[in-house]
Design a protein that fits this description.
The chain is built from 17 helices and 13 strands. By secondary structure, the chain is α/β, with parallel strands linked by helices. Helix 1 crosses helix 17 and helix 11 packs antiparallel against helix 12. The longest helix is centred in the middle third of the chain and has 25 residues. It binds beta-D-fucopyranose. The site of beta-D-fucopyranose has 12 residues, from loops. The site of beta-D-fucopyranose (FCB) has 12 residues, from loops.
């Protein structure tokens, strides 16, 4: 009798567990499940060599930047130390999260600590040109990154490698000098003449970036097939060059100049296209065995723009203009070749179907975090950008930002509004470009881990719908981020990690919400159990 009760209870448990494990929203076979990190944000800490050769290193410790609250005063050298702990982190991603991929970046200034300008590549990336680059490269760092990529592969994690995740070598960008050169320059004035080491303001960056891409393709191509050229070029522009209250993120060089915006866009577009060509020229090894040695794309930050008042034609027009300038111009340029460089909403004959830009995207990487609400004003804020006739609200009130407007729904610790439906909205446009898509970042600053589980399930449920409905051909999802890390000008308070880390011991601790992601990754889909625990 007792035995049969025990058996019955056992079977009831088993049936319950089986029901909970039932996948109610499957993802396609071969889908990549990963997390994303970047070199500057996650490499440093403990014994890791400091990344002193970058503009960001200088930027975050400059006393004037700290005094003016452009930056938090936190420093990246107390970070999670991925540089030394990559093997353990690979294990965490594989076993702790059930992942099969990891997106990371290679620090340009670590590979090339001094200028590559003297290397002549006018004849292409010939063996001689590559040998000249090899002579300038830091071979210890090349070996280090090969070891990292090898460790990921050993753990069956497909590496997706970003070549530029915001930080630039100091030899190409002196951010304090550029900042100071703009100090007395108004937002509508010309870019000051005679700038040197001006980063994305200087067209010379295009060739130097292409050299780095060619070198990376040559040195790491046997370990990497999935390449991201530039992380969020439009964020680089907005956060570096439109530092009006509530808009820019005080990225180096921290200026407010619409002329600079116009100067940097073509440089970023060209840098992507030439890096794309360079990777295709030098990475000839098919590491994943799928017949294509290189899949290269840009990683684009996309925002769901909504009118503040849907009944106001000005707000509706403003939201459409925001969507066009922020979400579409760059992607149009590197797919169709139509590059609206003057941001006026029309493609002039010289802007149409540019052969030097068209078809430079094997996939599109989409970083999606938030919705923006737009108030239209009916007239351009500047003659430099004819379609900029709106004021966007991108973040909301937090204890650290008490003067921002109150959150209209639910917002993260960072003041970003949680809006999963926006992922489908932005992917609806991306899907029309006819390329495979990866969600290369999506995540939430949530120190208490109170919202993250639901956030993950809601966004992945939206993404599953996007795939099932054929809106876009999405091949993978990378959650930002594996561990907490250095959140640029804001330092350490925004906690984006699925795992926290102890700054003294370096020990990682998975947050409870990581279980939701692990379950989804392991099942290649959303189970009944996960939906019951985290769903709406
Ligand atoms: C993205 C960046 C990434 C991180 C997240 C929160 O815009 O690519 O480095 O800062 O936001």
């Amino acid at each position: 009798m007792r035995r049969s009760i025990v058996l019955a209870a056992f079977f009831a448990l088993l049936v319950g567990a089986t029901a909970r494990a039932e996948v109610v929203q499957p993802f396609p076979g071969g889908f990549l499940w990963g997390t994303a990190i970047s070199a500057f944000q996650s490499e440093m800490g403990a014994g890791a060599p400091d990344d002193t050769g970058t503009d960001w290193w200088v930027w975050v410790r400059d006393p004037a930047n700290i005094a003016s609250a452009r930056v938090s005063g936190d420093l990246p050298e107390t970070g999670p130390d991925f540089y030394d702990r990559y093997r353990k982190d690979a294990r965490l991603a594989r076993h702790g999260l059930g992942n099969n991929a990891l997106r990371l970046s290679i620090e340009w200034s670590r590979i090339f600590p001094a200028s590559t300008a003297a290397v002549d590549v006018s004849g292409g990336f010939t063996p001689q040109a590559l040998a000249a680059l090899d002579a300038l490269a830091d071979q210890g760092e090349v070996a280090h990154y090969r070891a990292v990529l090898g460790a990921l592969r050993e753990r069956k994690l497909v590496p997706m490698v970003t070549l530029n995740h915001f930080s630039l070598p100091l030899w190409i960008h002196e951010p304090l000098a550029v900042r100071d050169a703009f100090a007395a320059v108004g937002p509508d004035a010309d870019v000051p003449a005679g700038l040197t080491r001006a980063g994305w303001l200087d067209p010379a960056i295009v060739d130097e970036f292409a050299k780095f891409a060619a070198y990376a393709g040559w040195k790491f191509g046997d370990l990497v097939d999935l390449w991201c050229t530039i992380n969020e070029p439009v964020v680089v522009i907005v956060s570096g060059f439109i530092n009006a209250a509530g808009v820019g993120g005080n990225f180096p060089p921290g200026v407010f100049s619409f002329a600079a915006v116009r100067t940097t866009i073509p440089n970023l577009v060209a840098a992507h296209a030439r890096a794309y060509d360079a990777l295709h020229a030098t990475d000839t090894v098919d590491a994943d065995g799928d017949g294509t040695p290189v899949k290269a794309g840009v990683v684009h930050n996309m925002v769901a723009f909504h009118p503040a008042n849907p009944a106001s034609p000005l707000d509706v027009a403003g939201a459409a203009h925001g969507d066009y300038i922020y979400n579409r111009v760059f992607l149009n340029a590197v797919t169709t070749g139509d590059f609206d460089a003057d941001l006026d909403g029309t493609i002039s004959p010289s802007e149409a179907a540019r052969p030097d830009l068209a078809g430079r995207s094997d996939f599109i990487g989409v970083n999606y975090y938030l919705r923006a609400v737009v108030t239209g004003i009916g007239v351009p804020l500047t003659s430099r950008i004819p379609l900029f006739d709106f004021i966007p609200t991108l973040s909301y009130r937090t204890p650290r930002n008490p003067s921002a407007p109150p959150c209209p729904s639910t917002c993260s610790d960072f003041g970003w509004e949680i809006y999963p439906a926006g992922l489908r909205e932005v992917l609806s446009f991306v899907g029309t470009l006819g390329r495979p898509v990866y969600v290369t970042e999506n995540g939430i600053a949530d120190a208490a881990d109170a919202l993250r589980g639901r956030y993950i399930v809601d966004h992945l449920s939206t993404l599953g719908g996007v795939i099932a409905d054929g809106v876009a051909d999405v091949r993978g999802y990378f959650h930002w981020s594996l561990t907490d890390n250095f959140e640029w000008s804001s330092g350490y308070y925004p906690r984006f990690g699925l795992a926290s880390f102890d700054p003294v011991s370096g020990r990682r601790k998975l947050r409870a919400s990581a279980r939701a992601y692990r379950s989804i990754a392991r099942h290649d889909g959303i189970t009944r159990g996960v939906l019951a625990r985290y769903g709406p």
